[in-house]
Design a protein that fits this description.
12 helices, 371 residues, single chain, five-stranded antiparallel sheet, globular, Beta-lactamase, 14% strand
Protein backbone atom coordinates (compact mmCIF):
# COMPACT_ATOMS: atom_id res chain seq x y z
CA UNK A 1 0.00 0.00 0.00
CA UNK A 2 1.42 3.40 -0.99
CA UNK A 3 1.11 6.20 1.54
CA UNK A 4 -0.52 9.45 0.43
CA UNK A 5 2.69 11.44 0.06
CA UNK A 6 4.15 8.97 -2.47
CA UNK A 7 0.81 8.76 -4.27
CA UNK A 8 0.74 12.54 -4.75
CA UNK A 9 4.35 12.47 -6.00
CA UNK A 10 3.51 9.68 -8.45
CA UNK A 11 0.55 11.57 -9.91
CA UNK A 12 2.62 14.76 -10.18
CA UNK A 13 5.51 12.90 -11.82
CA UNK A 14 3.18 11.11 -14.23
CA UNK A 15 1.63 14.39 -15.35
CA UNK A 16 5.05 15.61 -16.51
CA UNK A 17 5.17 12.71 -18.98
CA UNK A 18 1.53 13.12 -19.99
CA UNK A 19 2.19 16.75 -20.87
CA UNK A 20 5.21 15.72 -22.93
CA UNK A 21 2.97 13.17 -24.72
CA UNK A 22 5.23 10.26 -23.81
CA UNK A 23 2.00 8.27 -23.38
CA UNK A 24 -1.69 9.13 -23.32
CA UNK A 25 -2.37 7.30 -20.08
CA UNK A 26 -0.87 5.08 -17.41
CA UNK A 27 -1.87 2.88 -14.52
CA UNK A 28 0.11 1.29 -11.73
CA UNK A 29 -1.15 -1.63 -9.67
CA UNK A 30 0.43 -2.49 -6.33
CA UNK A 31 0.19 -5.50 -4.05
CA UNK A 32 1.93 -5.39 -0.71
CA UNK A 33 1.42 -8.25 1.76
CA UNK A 34 -2.28 -8.66 1.14
CA UNK A 35 -3.21 -5.07 0.28
CA UNK A 36 -4.03 -3.81 -3.21
CA UNK A 37 -3.92 -0.25 -4.52
CA UNK A 38 -4.16 1.34 -7.97
CA UNK A 39 -3.20 4.73 -9.34
CA UNK A 40 -4.17 5.84 -12.85
CA UNK A 41 -4.14 9.01 -14.89
CA UNK A 42 -4.60 10.11 -18.50
CA UNK A 43 -6.75 8.75 -21.30
CA UNK A 44 -6.88 5.61 -23.42
CA UNK A 45 -6.52 7.36 -26.75
CA UNK A 46 -6.74 11.16 -26.76
CA UNK A 47 -6.97 13.98 -24.26
CA UNK A 48 -10.75 13.97 -24.39
CA UNK A 49 -11.39 10.21 -24.57
CA UNK A 50 -12.03 7.48 -22.01
CA UNK A 51 -10.07 7.97 -18.80
CA UNK A 52 -7.59 5.25 -17.87
CA UNK A 53 -8.42 3.21 -14.78
CA UNK A 54 -7.47 -0.19 -13.33
CA UNK A 55 -9.74 -1.95 -15.84
CA UNK A 56 -8.36 -0.26 -18.97
CA UNK A 57 -6.93 -2.77 -21.42
CA UNK A 58 -3.28 -2.43 -22.47
CA UNK A 59 -1.18 -4.24 -25.06
CA UNK A 60 1.20 -6.11 -22.75
CA UNK A 61 3.74 -6.82 -25.53
CA UNK A 62 6.69 -8.92 -24.32
CA UNK A 63 5.08 -9.67 -20.96
CA UNK A 64 3.69 -12.48 -23.12
CA UNK A 65 7.09 -14.18 -22.98
CA UNK A 66 7.20 -15.10 -19.27
CA UNK A 67 3.47 -15.04 -18.50
CA UNK A 68 2.32 -17.13 -21.46
CA UNK A 69 5.22 -18.93 -23.10
CA UNK A 70 7.31 -19.72 -20.01
CA UNK A 71 4.32 -20.77 -17.92
CA UNK A 72 2.91 -22.89 -20.75
CA UNK A 73 6.23 -24.71 -21.06
CA UNK A 74 6.33 -25.32 -17.30
CA UNK A 75 2.79 -26.70 -17.53
CA UNK A 76 3.88 -29.07 -20.32
CA UNK A 77 6.84 -30.14 -18.16
CA UNK A 78 4.41 -30.97 -15.35
CA UNK A 79 2.31 -32.98 -17.81
CA UNK A 80 5.42 -34.90 -18.87
CA UNK A 81 5.04 -33.82 -22.49
CA UNK A 82 8.36 -31.98 -22.74
CA UNK A 83 11.70 -31.66 -21.00
CA UNK A 84 13.56 -28.35 -21.05
CA UNK A 85 16.75 -30.19 -22.05
CA UNK A 86 15.09 -31.36 -25.26
CA UNK A 87 16.48 -29.73 -28.38
CA UNK A 88 14.84 -27.95 -31.29
CA UNK A 89 15.69 -30.98 -33.42
CA UNK A 90 13.42 -33.15 -31.26
CA UNK A 91 10.42 -31.14 -32.42
CA UNK A 92 11.37 -30.76 -36.08
CA UNK A 93 12.93 -34.16 -36.84
CA UNK A 94 12.02 -34.22 -40.54
CA UNK A 95 12.91 -30.63 -41.37
CA UNK A 96 15.93 -31.01 -43.62
CA UNK A 97 16.39 -27.26 -44.04
CA UNK A 98 16.88 -26.53 -40.33
CA UNK A 99 20.32 -25.03 -39.66
CA UNK A 100 22.59 -27.56 -37.95
CA UNK A 101 23.36 -25.13 -35.08
CA UNK A 102 19.68 -24.67 -34.31
CA UNK A 103 19.00 -28.42 -34.18
CA UNK A 104 21.10 -28.69 -31.02
CA UNK A 105 19.69 -25.69 -29.12
CA UNK A 106 17.74 -26.81 -26.06
CA UNK A 107 14.51 -25.27 -24.79
CA UNK A 108 16.14 -23.85 -21.67
CA UNK A 109 18.57 -21.85 -23.82
CA UNK A 110 15.66 -20.48 -25.85
CA UNK A 111 13.82 -19.57 -22.64
CA UNK A 112 16.78 -17.78 -21.10
CA UNK A 113 17.91 -15.95 -24.26
CA UNK A 114 21.21 -17.82 -24.54
CA UNK A 115 20.40 -19.66 -27.79
CA UNK A 116 22.52 -17.36 -29.95
CA UNK A 117 19.57 -16.46 -32.19
CA UNK A 118 19.47 -12.82 -33.23
CA UNK A 119 17.10 -10.42 -31.51
CA UNK A 120 14.63 -9.57 -34.27
CA UNK A 121 13.80 -9.91 -37.94
CA UNK A 122 11.00 -7.99 -39.62
CA UNK A 123 9.09 -10.79 -41.35
CA UNK A 124 6.07 -8.80 -42.50
CA UNK A 125 5.10 -8.86 -46.16
CA UNK A 126 2.31 -6.28 -46.41
CA UNK A 127 1.26 -7.67 -49.80
CA UNK A 128 0.75 -11.21 -48.51
CA UNK A 129 -2.62 -12.80 -49.28
CA UNK A 130 -1.87 -15.94 -47.26
CA UNK A 131 -3.80 -16.97 -44.17
CA UNK A 132 -2.39 -16.51 -40.69
CA UNK A 133 -1.46 -20.19 -40.21
CA UNK A 134 0.50 -20.23 -43.46
CA UNK A 135 2.26 -17.00 -42.54
CA UNK A 136 3.28 -18.46 -39.19
CA UNK A 137 4.62 -21.64 -40.78
CA UNK A 138 6.73 -19.57 -43.18
CA UNK A 139 8.11 -17.42 -40.35
CA UNK A 140 8.94 -20.46 -38.19
CA UNK A 141 10.71 -22.07 -41.16
CA UNK A 142 12.74 -18.91 -41.75
CA UNK A 143 13.83 -18.93 -38.10
CA UNK A 144 14.84 -22.60 -38.33
CA UNK A 145 17.03 -21.75 -41.31
CA UNK A 146 18.74 -18.82 -39.52
CA UNK A 147 22.32 -19.30 -38.43
CA UNK A 148 22.72 -18.15 -34.80
CA UNK A 149 24.91 -15.06 -34.46
CA UNK A 150 26.71 -16.68 -31.50
CA UNK A 151 27.19 -20.32 -30.48
CA UNK A 152 24.49 -21.39 -27.98
CA UNK A 153 25.07 -20.64 -24.28
CA UNK A 154 28.02 -18.30 -24.90
CA UNK A 155 26.21 -14.96 -24.73
CA UNK A 156 22.82 -13.48 -23.88
CA UNK A 157 20.82 -11.99 -26.76
CA UNK A 158 17.26 -10.99 -25.94
CA UNK A 159 15.54 -12.76 -28.83
CA UNK A 160 12.00 -12.52 -30.19
CA UNK A 161 12.92 -15.27 -32.65
CA UNK A 162 13.54 -17.77 -29.87
CA UNK A 163 10.12 -17.12 -28.39
CA UNK A 164 8.30 -17.33 -31.72
CA UNK A 165 9.91 -20.75 -32.04
CA UNK A 166 8.92 -21.70 -28.48
CA UNK A 167 5.31 -20.71 -29.18
CA UNK A 168 5.28 -23.12 -32.12
CA UNK A 169 6.90 -25.88 -30.04
CA UNK A 170 4.18 -25.48 -27.39
CA UNK A 171 1.54 -26.00 -30.07
CA UNK A 172 3.33 -29.09 -31.38
CA UNK A 173 3.71 -30.61 -27.92
CA UNK A 174 0.20 -29.80 -26.69
CA UNK A 175 -1.78 -30.29 -29.90
CA UNK A 176 -3.52 -26.98 -29.19
CA UNK A 177 -3.14 -23.38 -30.33
CA UNK A 178 -0.90 -21.40 -27.97
CA UNK A 179 -3.67 -19.08 -26.79
CA UNK A 180 -6.07 -21.99 -26.27
CA UNK A 181 -3.56 -24.02 -24.28
CA UNK A 182 -2.60 -21.08 -22.05
CA UNK A 183 -6.22 -20.06 -21.54
CA UNK A 184 -7.36 -23.59 -20.66
CA UNK A 185 -4.41 -24.70 -18.54
CA UNK A 186 -3.18 -21.50 -16.89
CA UNK A 187 -5.75 -18.71 -16.59
CA UNK A 188 -9.12 -20.48 -16.52
CA UNK A 189 -8.34 -22.22 -13.20
CA UNK A 190 -7.66 -18.74 -11.80
CA UNK A 191 -10.86 -17.29 -13.37
CA UNK A 192 -8.91 -14.51 -15.07
CA UNK A 193 -9.58 -15.42 -18.70
CA UNK A 194 -11.92 -12.48 -19.34
CA UNK A 195 -9.31 -9.85 -18.50
CA UNK A 196 -6.07 -11.47 -19.68
CA UNK A 197 -6.29 -12.66 -23.26
CA UNK A 198 -5.08 -12.69 -26.85
CA UNK A 199 -7.24 -10.65 -29.19
CA UNK A 200 -7.68 -12.42 -32.51
CA UNK A 201 -10.80 -10.43 -33.46
CA UNK A 202 -9.70 -7.97 -36.14
CA UNK A 203 -13.00 -6.04 -35.83
CA UNK A 204 -12.72 -5.53 -32.06
CA UNK A 205 -14.54 -2.62 -30.41
CA UNK A 206 -11.97 -0.07 -29.32
CA UNK A 207 -13.74 1.14 -26.17
CA UNK A 208 -11.60 0.56 -23.07
CA UNK A 209 -8.42 -0.25 -25.01
CA UNK A 210 -5.36 1.99 -24.90
CA UNK A 211 -4.09 2.95 -28.35
CA UNK A 212 -0.52 2.13 -29.39
CA UNK A 213 -0.40 4.14 -32.61
CA UNK A 214 -1.12 3.02 -36.17
CA UNK A 215 -0.36 -0.03 -38.28
CA UNK A 216 2.75 0.55 -40.42
CA UNK A 217 1.18 -0.98 -43.54
CA UNK A 218 -2.59 -0.43 -43.26
CA UNK A 219 -2.67 2.86 -41.36
CA UNK A 220 -5.32 1.41 -39.03
CA UNK A 221 -5.28 2.54 -35.42
CA UNK A 222 -3.85 -0.12 -33.12
CA UNK A 223 -6.46 -0.02 -30.42
CA UNK A 224 -7.27 -3.59 -29.42
CA UNK A 225 -4.93 -4.83 -32.16
CA UNK A 226 -1.45 -5.98 -31.17
CA UNK A 227 1.32 -3.45 -31.78
CA UNK A 228 4.07 -5.93 -32.67
CA UNK A 229 4.18 -6.20 -36.48
CA UNK A 230 5.26 -9.84 -36.66
CA UNK A 231 2.63 -10.94 -34.16
CA UNK A 232 -0.10 -8.97 -35.94
CA UNK A 233 1.04 -10.49 -39.27
CA UNK A 234 0.55 -13.95 -37.72
CA UNK A 235 -2.97 -13.16 -36.51
CA UNK A 236 -2.34 -11.76 -33.02
CA UNK A 237 -1.03 -14.89 -31.27
CA UNK A 238 2.67 -15.67 -30.87
CA UNK A 239 5.16 -16.74 -28.24
CA UNK A 240 6.81 -13.33 -28.02
CA UNK A 241 3.82 -10.92 -28.00
CA UNK A 242 0.06 -10.65 -28.28
CA UNK A 243 -1.24 -10.66 -24.70
CA UNK A 244 -3.69 -7.95 -23.57
CA UNK A 245 -4.84 -7.17 -20.07
CA UNK A 246 -5.73 -4.67 -17.38
CA UNK A 247 -3.68 -3.61 -14.37
CA UNK A 248 -6.18 -5.19 -12.01
CA UNK A 249 -6.11 -8.54 -13.82
CA UNK A 250 -2.33 -8.56 -14.16
CA UNK A 251 -1.77 -7.78 -10.48
CA UNK A 252 -4.21 -10.57 -9.57
CA UNK A 253 -2.36 -12.99 -11.85
CA UNK A 254 1.00 -12.03 -10.34
CA UNK A 255 -0.40 -12.52 -6.84
CA UNK A 256 -1.37 -16.06 -7.77
CA UNK A 257 2.12 -16.70 -9.15
CA UNK A 258 3.64 -15.35 -5.93
CA UNK A 259 1.44 -17.64 -3.84
CA UNK A 260 2.29 -20.66 -6.01
CA UNK A 261 5.99 -19.82 -5.74
CA UNK A 262 5.77 -19.48 -1.94
CA UNK A 263 3.63 -22.64 -1.76
CA UNK A 264 0.76 -20.93 0.00
CA UNK A 265 -1.45 -21.88 -2.95
CA UNK A 266 -1.44 -24.52 -5.67
CA UNK A 267 -2.41 -24.73 -9.32
CA UNK A 268 -3.68 -27.85 -11.11
CA UNK A 269 -1.37 -27.38 -14.12
CA UNK A 270 1.54 -25.35 -12.83
CA UNK A 271 4.48 -25.74 -10.50
CA UNK A 272 7.12 -23.06 -9.98
CA UNK A 273 9.62 -25.32 -8.20
CA UNK A 274 11.97 -25.14 -11.19
CA UNK A 275 11.87 -21.33 -11.06
CA UNK A 276 12.56 -21.49 -7.33
CA UNK A 277 15.62 -23.66 -7.97
CA UNK A 278 16.89 -21.32 -10.69
CA UNK A 279 16.58 -18.36 -8.32
CA UNK A 280 18.34 -20.25 -5.50
CA UNK A 281 21.17 -21.28 -7.81
CA UNK A 282 21.63 -17.67 -8.86
CA UNK A 283 21.11 -16.37 -12.38
CA UNK A 284 23.05 -13.77 -14.34
CA UNK A 285 19.95 -12.20 -15.80
CA UNK A 286 17.18 -14.53 -17.02
CA UNK A 287 15.34 -17.15 -14.98
CA UNK A 288 13.16 -19.35 -17.22
CA UNK A 289 12.22 -16.31 -19.28
CA UNK A 290 11.63 -14.03 -16.30
CA UNK A 291 13.89 -11.00 -16.10
CA UNK A 292 15.69 -10.02 -12.89
CA UNK A 293 16.66 -6.45 -11.92
CA UNK A 294 20.06 -5.31 -13.12
CA UNK A 295 22.62 -4.50 -10.44
CA UNK A 296 22.65 -0.85 -11.53
CA UNK A 297 20.45 1.45 -13.61
CA UNK A 298 17.59 -1.03 -13.50
CA UNK A 299 14.15 -0.06 -14.81
CA UNK A 300 12.88 -1.68 -11.61
CA UNK A 301 14.65 0.96 -9.57
CA UNK A 302 16.99 0.18 -6.69
CA UNK A 303 14.68 -0.98 -3.90
CA UNK A 304 13.48 -4.46 -4.87
CA UNK A 305 15.19 -7.43 -3.20
CA UNK A 306 17.61 -9.58 -5.18
CA UNK A 307 14.95 -12.31 -5.35
CA UNK A 308 12.73 -10.37 -7.75
CA UNK A 309 11.43 -11.47 -11.15
CA UNK A 310 9.52 -9.61 -13.82
CA UNK A 311 9.69 -8.35 -17.38
CA UNK A 312 9.38 -5.27 -19.59
CA UNK A 313 7.13 -4.77 -22.59
CA UNK A 314 8.06 -2.65 -25.62
CA UNK A 315 4.72 -0.79 -25.47
CA UNK A 316 5.67 0.65 -22.06
CA UNK A 317 4.49 -2.11 -19.74
CA UNK A 318 6.19 -4.02 -16.93
CA UNK A 319 5.66 -6.14 -13.85
CA UNK A 320 7.95 -6.97 -10.94
CA UNK A 321 7.33 -9.59 -8.25
CA UNK A 322 9.50 -9.38 -5.14
CA UNK A 323 9.51 -12.99 -3.98
CA UNK A 324 11.04 -12.19 -0.58
CA UNK A 325 9.05 -9.09 0.36
CA UNK A 326 5.75 -10.35 -1.14
CA UNK A 327 5.40 -7.14 -3.11
CA UNK A 328 4.21 -6.66 -6.70
CA UNK A 329 4.27 -3.60 -8.94
CA UNK A 330 2.56 -3.58 -12.34
CA UNK A 331 3.14 -0.49 -14.49
CA UNK A 332 1.16 -0.11 -17.71
CA UNK A 333 1.54 2.70 -20.24
CA UNK A 334 1.07 3.06 -24.00
CA UNK A 335 4.38 4.84 -24.56
CA UNK A 336 4.56 3.82 -28.26
CA UNK A 337 1.46 6.00 -28.84
CA UNK A 338 3.46 9.15 -28.20
CA UNK A 339 7.14 9.99 -28.36
CA UNK A 340 9.17 7.15 -29.84
CA UNK A 341 12.32 8.08 -27.91
CA UNK A 342 12.76 5.21 -25.46
CA UNK A 343 14.75 7.37 -23.04
CA UNK A 344 11.55 8.90 -21.63
CA UNK A 345 10.13 5.57 -20.41
CA UNK A 346 13.60 4.61 -19.20
CA UNK A 347 13.51 7.68 -16.94
CA UNK A 348 9.91 7.12 -15.85
CA UNK A 349 10.05 3.48 -14.77
CA UNK A 350 12.75 3.48 -12.05
CA UNK A 351 11.43 6.62 -10.37
CA UNK A 352 7.92 5.16 -10.20
CA UNK A 353 9.18 1.88 -8.75
CA UNK A 354 11.41 3.53 -6.16
CA UNK A 355 8.60 5.83 -5.00
CA UNK A 356 6.21 2.88 -4.64
CA UNK A 357 8.62 0.59 -2.78
CA UNK A 358 9.75 3.43 -0.52
CA UNK A 359 6.14 4.29 0.30
CA UNK A 360 5.19 0.66 0.89
CA UNK A 361 8.17 0.10 3.17
CA UNK A 362 7.31 3.26 5.13
CA UNK A 363 3.72 2.09 5.50
CA UNK A 364 4.85 -1.23 6.93
CA UNK A 365 6.92 0.52 9.59
CA UNK A 366 4.08 2.76 10.78
CA UNK A 367 2.79 1.71 14.21
CA UNK A 368 -0.72 0.32 14.20
CA UNK A 369 -3.33 2.55 15.75
CA UNK A 370 -4.87 1.19 18.91
CA UNK A 371 -8.58 0.56 18.67
Amino acid sequence: MVIKREERLLIRYGKLFLRKKVFSGWCVGIYDKGQFSFIADGYCRTSNGTAVDKNSCFDLASLTKPLVTSLSLLSLVKEGKIDLQQTVGDFYPDNSRTHSYILGINLLSLLEHSSGLQAHIHFVNSNSKQGYKTRKKIIVQKILEEKPVYPPETKYIYSDLGYILLGDIIERASGMNLDEYWNTKIVQPLQLEENLFFNTDQSVETEGYCSTGRCSWSGRELCGLVHDDNCRFMGGVAGHAGLFGSAEALVSFCVQLLKIYRKSSSHPSLSLSFLEKRMQDGVDRWALGFDTPAASNSSAGSRFSRHTVGHLGFTGTSFWIDLDEERIVVLLTNRVWGRKDIRYIQRFRPVVHDLIVKGAATKRKEPRRQQ
